[in-house]
Amino acid sequence: MLTRRLGRTEVSVTALGFGAAPIGNLYSPLADEDAYAAIETAWNGGVRYFDTAPHYGLGLSEERLGAALAGRPRARFAVSTKVGRLLQRNPVPTGSDLAAGGFAVPDTLIRTPDYTRDGILRSLEASLKRLRLDRVDVVYVHDPDDHMDQAIHEALPALADLRDQGVVGAIGAGMNTVAPLIRILAEADVDVLMVAGRWTLLDRTAEPLLDACVARDVSVVAAAPFNSGLLAHRWPPDDAYFDYGPAPTPILEHARDLARACAVHGTTLPHAAIQFPLRHPAVASVVTGVRTRAQAQSALGWSAADIPEHLWTESNWA
Q1: pLDDT class of 255 with cuts at 50, 70, 90
Q2: Which residues contact 313 (CB under 8 A, 6 or more apart)?
Q3: Active-site residue, selected from the candidate residues 36, 49, 56, 140
Q4: 56 catalytic, yes or no?
Q5: What Rg, from alpha-carbon coordinates, does the chain have?
Q6: In this predicted structure, what is the pLDDT of residue 314?
Q7: CB neighbour list of residue 36: distance below 8 Å, 6 or more residues apart
Q8: What is the Cα–Cα distance from 24 to 130, expressed in whole angstroms?
Q9: Which residues have C-beta within 8 Å of that of residue 231, sequence separation ≥ 6?
């Protein structure tokens, strides 16, 4: 599988990345063996970039990913995790994290926003233990929308020090919103930015960010290429979701227009959706959430099969 280097670092990632939020029991329980089967299928298909976070299942995603990768040659894969949400003991557990965090796991822990230097170091130390690693390849500051000054002046400098020490290969931020990422690009020393859902067939609002990243020699990882599932179907269904909620009618109709254009050119909507982000020179990898062996197989197939060039040049993607 094609690999690309992140910014000016020595870290390389595969064009298709494994998003590990679903194996943290996102929305519903998942057996360990099913999570491991999804990772194994992705690995056998050539995926060597795996993205996780403490937020995903209150550490369960990191634990499962660490167990699945244990014993594999360390130089052959890249792992990214995130900082900014410190996991601490929950003094008043209710029994489930579904209401608070969206993961079907016991809420014995809670997420405490912490973008201080100490919080970053503590979070990463805990992540390394769960991942069974002595270093990670990429660390993103996770969703610092309400903590931007602290992220820029404390969290990212702390990560830069770790990068200089060789504990981290590349650093950046991961968010769903574009404007804060543009500010981070302008004010901080970053190698890569992860933007979720804003550079897809359906939502191109991150284009100014991507263009600026090219000028700064900063890479982009495009996450959530299916916009919460809306673009994951040949024909978007009436009950499709967009950005974590029911798709509004205009969005649903736009997605169906895209599906029609794909069919005319002999391909499918998810096939085009997973390949579209990589057409921008800033994008090093597309990370899609994977829950099952079947989802891994589908993502591998869509990412590998060629799409006629005239789909991009002749279709009205506006």
Answers
A1: very high
A2: none
A3: 56
A4: yes
A5: 19
A6: 73
A7: 64, 67, 68
A8: 13
A9: 200, 201, 202, 225, 255, 258, 269, 270, 273
